[in-house]
Amino acid sequence: MAVATLHYIHDPLCGWCYAAQPLVSAVVDTLGGRVALKLHGGGLFDEPRTLEPELAEHIVHADERIASLSGQPFGKPYQEGLLAEHGTVLFSLPPIAGVLAAQALDAGQAYPMLVAIQNAHYQQGLRVVEPSVLTELAETLGLDGEAFQQSFAKVQGTPTLEHVQDSRRLLGELGGQGFPTLALEIHGKRQLLPHHYDYGRPANFVNRIAALLPAVH
After folding, report:
1. Domain coverage including residue 59
2. What InterPro entries does this protein map onto (predicted)?
3. Which is nearest to 115 in space by CA: 6, 10, 7?
């Protein structure tokens, strides 16, 4: 029985959210019975943006720091393919819609879908803005491809935009500083969770949250 909710304001194409992936996964794996995870996609690239050289260079430098701090791997297909190719488009709304579509089919698949999208992007260099790629990822989780496509069609557009607006509203209410922002809610009270110091040390993050949970009677 969950006694707390971990609110995770993220973006599938945010490198620092990829850095936080091991922290969130550790909470799910270790405290999943007591802490419910709630995802809030924030829309880092809320309009399609073609990856120009200046932005690509900025991302490369950020990725180097992320890899150093978190130990998260960046694959050659991403570094030498996706980031280096002309015409690569960054657009957060399709992968956010992919997470929402998976969630609508099976609530337990929302976070695995986010992880699959992050890994496909940063390790395999796949174009996760494309619905066909998202469908393939959903199928790797055991979801029916046709059912996913139908669910994706339903959440695309207005439902996804409203979700992003709600996520940004929550970010403002929490006083968060962008993506990722993590907050723990217990008995209706929410508090921001510092996490930057825990990159590469998931157990520390889990212990920090465990210490805040109500005692088990």
Report:
1. 4-212
2. Thioredoxin-like_sf
3. 10
Residue given tokens 């209706």 in the structure block: 188
CATH code, domain carrying 42 = 3.40.30.10
Within-domain flag for 140: yes
What's at 69, amino acid-wise?
A: L
Residue 59 lies in a domain: yes
Establish if 217 belongs to a structural domain: no
Rounded Cα gap, residues 182 and 193, in angstroms:
5
Q: Is residue 97 part of a domain?
A: yes
pLDDT along the chain (217 residues), means of 10: 94 98 98 96 96 94 97 97 92 98 98 98 98 98 98 97 98 95 97 94 97 83
| Structural domains of the chain, count | 1
Distances (CA, A) of 136 to 26, 35, 182: 25, 29, 29
